[in-house]
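Q: For a teaching session next week I want to show students how multiple molecules come together into a single three-dimensional assembly. I've collected the sequence lines for a complex. Could you give me the predicted structure tokens for the whole thing so I can convert them for display?
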Amino acid sequence: MSRPDVDQLLVREAWLLDHQRLDEWLGLFTDDAVYWVPLQMDQAEPFTTASLIYDDRRLPEIRVRQAQHPRAHARVPAPRTVHQVTNVQVVADDGRELTVTSSLVMVEYRKERQRVWGGLVEHRLRRTDGGLRIAAKRVDLVNSESELCGIACLF
Amino acid sequence: MPTLSADDIARLVEPDRVHRAVYTDPHVFELEMERLFGRAWLLLGHESQVPNPGDFFTTRMAREPVIVARHTDGSARALINRCAHRGTTVCDAPSGTTRQFVCPYHGWTYGTDGALAVVPFAEGYDPPAAGRRDLGLARVPRVDAYRGFIFASLAADGPSLLEFLGHLRTSFDDLVDRAPSGQVEVAGGVFKHTYRGNWKLVLENHNDAVHPAFVHASSIWAARESSKPESDGYAEIAVRQMLQNGAPPELWESTGLWAAPSGHSFMGDYHTDSRLVTALDHPVFREYRTALERRVGAEAAARILGVSRWNSIVYPSCSFMSQFRQLRIVQPLAVDRTLVSAYSFRLGGAPEQMFRDTVAFANVVNGTGSPVLTDDLEVYERAQHGLTTARSDWVYLGRGHGSDLPDEHRTWRGKTGTSEIHIRNQLAAWVRYLTDEP
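A: Of course. Below is the structure for the complete assembly, covering every listed component.
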């Protein structure tokens, strides 16, 4: 798997998120994927420590579907975002999956409020017959343990 | 600052309505800091956060930065986090263990009881500063605990903690009695979520049984549209809780809702899902029930698991779910800004799977990124926004008004579970605190 394929997938993912193409975004994930935004710095696991978001395959679907409901108060209008993905490194490759780290700076705007998020991201990308798919995505926000207003955007 | 007389304050609250100034006026907020948060017993935390001498955590009471520390004599102390010298906070960490608190500015050093132990360049003071009682960290006048929950009051006098809690002490009993070991501990991290709205909005919402169908309509719908829960996988707990918010109107109406003196209230439970309610005897809970029975006997275990409560609110500082092992501490930051810290508890002696369920439940009910909580926070902010308009001054709280019924243990019960009795009761206590002039 070449680096251009990895870069292209991460850029594609950011583009889909920033253009509200959320069903297509879900399509990038494998059926057993997890999407994780830990609560604590260096959090080891999501089962005995709480998480800002810890979704197995089913919950991201619920989040995407929820935003389509006319009374999704925190999600209508949808937050507008710009994901800036940089510093991409392939840090491991076991033949089946690649582990890729990157830096995320994201601007979120909704209802007269703009927030800037920064996070260190780790993707596990799996080689499948349909090409590279996301098997896991972990986003460690630099301010995950601070006092935060509600989070209804996707990182 | 304009002075609000007791009459001015009393006029803001009528039997079935409240003036918007109670939510929006900064002068009212200042009085709340002095007379309500400056007097009532406030929940600071749990003894498991400071198990050993030297352990501490920092928090705030009204406007005061506070350190809660376990002193060498074994007692829990609450100290104002302000150096007696030039006012610097002496402790910056959210929690930790230390022998002493050293001011970063000029090195004044205090024991975990707040006593001033060391003053550098001591010869500059005559008489010597170290050891002087008036130069220690100020102590919060009253600290007490109930079943391991640490409360403190900034007022030197007032009702005892037990008098203050009244019947609500049974909600703490409910939480602790459920532990097979008899002990609970704070575990799993703390959510700290804020909203741009008055602190009362969250405490009014927690026992509001009409709001779920409307505020949470989108997550209920999305969970229903998704495939049925099948496994005991992580997301199942979250999906099941979202579905429970969509309980039919009859269930909400028939749920018990009790108001108690001092502004407290609690709601009976509306959960029917055997994977969420331990008493409903799902295979996951059988090992737990056996462990509980081993300690207390089958009869007592049945009685403990038969208690069925949703939110208990101890006014004005906390709201907790005894059955689901969740606690929220509410801290007003400004008239239109509030911080809620959400804690999970581990039941000592219970199977590990139960704590995993607690964490999954916390993420969906109290998580800052939860599909459920985010809609509550949005609606609090919209309420605050609407209340800024001067075209209409009153908030209407007439649901069930006139039909509240006296019940045992000095409680009043809403005629139905959707009564606004708990809000009327909170505001009645609010008037009592705020019209009691110093």
